[in-house]
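Hello K.,

You asked for the raw outputs rather than the summary table, so here they are, unedited. I folded two proteins back to back in the same session to keep the settings identical. This is the first:
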Amino acid sequence: MSDGTRVLADETDGVVHVGLIRSVLKSQYHAGLAMLRQTIELCPEELWFDAAPRNSFWQVAYHALFFTHLYLMPREEDFVPWEGHVGEVQNPDGIAGPPDPDSPLPVTAPPYSRAQALAYLQHLDGMIDDVVDSLDLASADSGFYWYKVPKLEHQLINVRHLNHHMAQLADRLTAAGVEGVRWVGARRPG
């Protein structure tokens, strides 16, 4: 069967077409990234690098992009970092964890600029459709040993994670007196 006619069945023999699930996932990834783009574009320069919160705006934005990218992949070993990624650090996602005193690597990368974050977002947005089309959404395995959930559920977790951090950043903007992050409910081509 083609992906358009392949089905997933639930315990009550209900049927959901995988093509519909893929379309919804793509739409919600694109919508979440569109809203994250707004937060990045609206963020004042002083807030982008503000170290007063535990994690700067740039760190949360990069973390959201990094994990959206990683968990979009079929498996951990399929992940190829974005070309602007600084990998020689203890915490490649931008959020500083406890430092490893035995590591010669810096805890995080130097701050990514707004332009770098937007370039990464554009790169990620451009790969969504092809990658979602390639996923085995019926797999009982997420592709990541630390996530013991089926692949479809893992994709929903990934979309929720993206939106969680987008909302954190939108809230920071509102607290700083910056309004204007518009709701994007769906994003479909055409």
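The second followed immediately with the same parameters:
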Amino acid sequence: MYFPPCGGSGILSGCGFLFHNYIQWRYVMDHAEKARALFLEGYNCAQAVLCAFEDLTGLDRETSARLASSFGGGMGRMREVCGTVSGALLVLGQLYGYSDPSDPEAKKEHYHLVQEFARRFRETNGTIICRELLSGVRTKPGRDPEARTQEYYASRPCLRHVGEAAEIVDELLRERAGTESL
């Protein structure tokens, strides 16, 4: 569902009450479960996380998938920032990002949200860097994505990280909405 701007910056700024009530009334999908299912369908890690939140971001599947497509494999398989982190930050940016470059408070608030997401992900996994998360996993060298096989899924922590990223986003959304009852 799309929430039009209600003042301030970000789609949900000034709409806490509306968002809170929407969450309590409408929250029926487990975003982590949906993200894992999307990853198993073949969406990359960033796409799986962003697409899992389309019920809140107002973005359709194609738009979400295109926006996040560059971030899979740690940004185009360069193994930099984990794609699940990038996908989660795209969700947070869509919901709580700022758009007014002359609003330093909105920028600061959003950066603190990003930093809190990263802190929680690091707390669980030790890093937000793809190559470090894949340490010890045999990956094929090169620039091309690997085929999704049973061996691929069995040898990587990516499916777990997709779910963890979505869970952290949900935690942050509950906290921002002022409820733990999702």
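The chain has one domain: 16-177.

Happy to rerun anything if the numbers look odd on your end.

Regards,
P.
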